[in-house]
Backbone:
């Protein structure tokens, strides 16, 4: 995976996991919101979630999950995409818009500093808090071997 692809994956993750209200505020704070048109969606559907037994075994269908997707196009032809868990059409549209803007050099640095980096920091802090909450209930299991079996 190239550096560009990994950076895009990072900001798309941050936008998808962000609070929808935060994206709405960021959109309203843009000094010059670009003209865009919706190419697809926002539309909601189901996707099959797959897993592996023991994280290394054979794949199996774990179940279905509701997602909302959206694709937008800016006036210059740049396209933005988003897939958001749940039924959240406005969140999907805004995430797709910010994905398109992040691909444009004139917007990417400012949006990274004001939107994406704070979202990533907040997500890391949230995961750390959750780990601290769960840590006291951690149980270490071990196997005792008896005899020559």
Residues:
């Amino acid at each position: 995976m190239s550096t560009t692809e990994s950076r895009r994956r990072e900001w798309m993750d941050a936008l998808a996991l962000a609070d929808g209200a935060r994206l709405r505020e960021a959109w309203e704070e843009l000094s010059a919101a670009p003209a865009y048109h919706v190419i697809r969606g926002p539309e909601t559907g189901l996707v099959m979630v797959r897993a592996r037994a023991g994280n290394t075994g054979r794949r199996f269908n774990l179940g279905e999950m509701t997602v909302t997707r959206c694709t937008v196009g800016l006036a210059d032809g740049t396209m933005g995409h988003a897939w958001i868990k749940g039924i959240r059409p406005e969140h999907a549209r805004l995430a797709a818009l910010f994905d398109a803007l992040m691909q444009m050099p004139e917007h990417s640095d400012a949006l990274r500093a004001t939107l994406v980096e704070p979202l990533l920091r907040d997500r890391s802090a949230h995961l750390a808090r959750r780990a601290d909450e769960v840590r006291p209930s951690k149980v270490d299991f071990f196997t005792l071997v008896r005899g020559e079996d």
Q: What stands out?
A: Strands lie at 36-52, 59-74, 79-85. DSSP finds four helices and three strands in the chain.
